[in-house]
Structure formats: structure tokens, C-alpha cells
Structure prediction request, 234 residues.
Amino acid sequence: MIRANANEASSNRVSRSLEIKMRGMQLALAVVLGTVASGCANVERSRDLGNPNVPPAVTAVQVCSNCHGVDGNSVSPIFPRLAGQQAAYLVSQLENFRSHHRADPEGFEYMWGISHKLTDAQIAGLAEYYSKQTPRLHDMPAADPKQLAAGKEIFEKGVPEQNVIPCAACHGPKGQGIGAFPQLAHQHADYIVKQLNVFQYTQGRPGTPMELIAHPLTGENKEAIAVYLQAFPD
Ligand code: HEC
Ligand code: HEC
Prediction:
């Protein structure tokens, strides 16, 4: 019994020290972002995420753009695209990072520190900025037509024999989303697969219909739907 407690205490210590290390990394990142190639004191101040007087569009261009792109069309699939995303969805996710409700590993690693000091007004302004940007097509070789067709079928009709509901029912016929239902069209395929795995296998994004929906998806289903959503051909 004592031994079990000691083990527990030591594993708590390990996870605590890991947490501190992660926070240290976030801080280092914030410092880097705050000092990149800037000799101008106003720019310095405007990079302070804790200053509610900085207009959200300035924060978006000077801070968020480092990962998500100036117009929200990120290039690397590590960083989700935000261009044209539903404002209500953007608000909900920034709130979820800030409150630590959304705790998937990369959300924790990248977005907890960044959202920490944002006020509700800043969040609303950032959401408005990105929702007004135009999603761009990916600069990618054409996808495998068979996979595209399989993805389209799942998106529009679901997979009845696996009890998968059509994605379009909530995400809209053009994958454009509505309100708290996110736009999925032109999102990075790798990010989509990653998030489907988060919903399917973890509690990183709890309390959404996606846990149930992702549950019966096979690896092949997830790849096909992600390839289709990234390309989203007419
Ligand atoms: C250092 C890189 C980095 C910076 C800077 C950054 N983000 Fe992120 N952001 C990420 C990553 C990585 C994810 C994906 C996390 C995951 O996989 O859960 C993400 C996810 C998000 C999401 C969720 C998107 C979705 O589709 O669910 C929103 C919204 C977001 N970021 C907004 C912002 C805003 C606004 C800023 C500026 C205040 C910002 N981010 C700055 C890396 C960054
Ligand atoms: C009953 C409504 C509903 C259906 C049907 C549905 N979704 Fe969702 N989906 C949601 C909601 C709500 C969210 C936002 C969850 C959150 O707030 O974290 C979401 C989020 C997502 C995300 C995360 C997006 C991001 O930017 O992080 C992906 C990926 C996704 N859904 C894919 C799918 C796929 C693929 C299907 C079809 C197999 C599907 N969804 C069917 C309601 C639905």
C-alpha cells in the first residue's frame, strides 16, 4: 500500500516535471516570437498576447501567422488551416484551449500557452479575422481518383453498414460548416486524420458528437475522407 503510494507520488512528480518542462518550452517560444527580427518598440509591444489593446488583426499577422499563415492558409499540415473557418467554431476552440478542455497533445503543446492570456474580446476579434479570409486550394499533385470517390461517398452518404452518419449532415454539403460545426473543406488531410484519431481513441477533445461518429471508422475510411476533404473537388 505504502509502496503503491510512493509509486504514485513519483509518477506525479514525473508528470509535474514534464509539465514544467513543456511550459518552459512554451515560454521560450513566446520569447522567440516576441523578438524575431524586430528592432521596433511598438512591434515588440504589439506582440504581447496579454495586451488587450492590440487589435486582433495585428496579433493574427504578427503572432498567429508564424504557424497558421497570414491569411490562415497554413502550408505545413501540423498547423490547421483557419481561413474561412466558422467564427463560432474558432471561438469555441480558443476557449477550449484557454480552459484546457481541449487537451490533445499538439493543442496542449502549441495552443495552451498562446491562448492563456487572451480575453474574450481578443478571441472574438481573432475569430472574426480568420473567418473572413478565403480558403485556398492546396498546391498538391492530384489525389488518387479511387480514394477521392470513396471519400466523397462517406462524406455524402456515410457508411450505413458501419453505422457512420454522413459528414455532410453536420459539416454542410460543401464542407463549409455552420456555427459550431467546423468547415472541413480544404483542411490538411494529415490534420484531419490526426483529429479523427483523437476523437476515436482519446479523451483529448471530450463531449462532442465526433467521439461517437469517429468510433466505427477504419483506417482506410479516415484516409479516404481526409484526401477528399483536402482536395474538395466540385
Ligand atoms: C507555434 C505555432 C502556433 C502559433 C503561433 C499559433 N498556433 Fe494555433 N495551432 C497550432 C497547432 C499545432 C494547432 C493544432 C493543435 C492540434 O493538433 O490539436 C493549432 C490549432 C489552432 C486552432 C484550432 C483549429 C481547429 O481547426 O480546430 C485555432 C482556432 C488556433 N490554433 C488559433 C490560433 C490563433 C488565433 C493564434 C494566434 C493568437 C495561434 N493559433 C497561434 C500552432 C500554433
Ligand atoms: C452530428 C453532427 C456531426 C457529424 C454527422 C459529423 N461531425 Fe465532425 N464535428 C462535429 C462537431 C460539433 C465538431 C466540433 C467538435 C469540437 O467542438 O471540438 C466536429 C469536428 C470535426 C473535426 C475536427 C475539425 C478541426 O478543425 O479540428 C473533424 C476532422 C470532423 N469533425 C470530421 C468529420 C467526419 C469525417 C464526419 C463524417 C464521417 C463527421 N465529422 C461527421 C459534428 C459532426
Observations:
- The CA atoms of residues 34 and 48 lie 7 Å apart.
- The pocket of heme C (ligand 1) is lined by residues 29, 59, 63-64, 66-68, 78-80, 82, 90, 93-94, 104, 106-107, 110-111, 114, 126, 182 (CB under 6 Å).
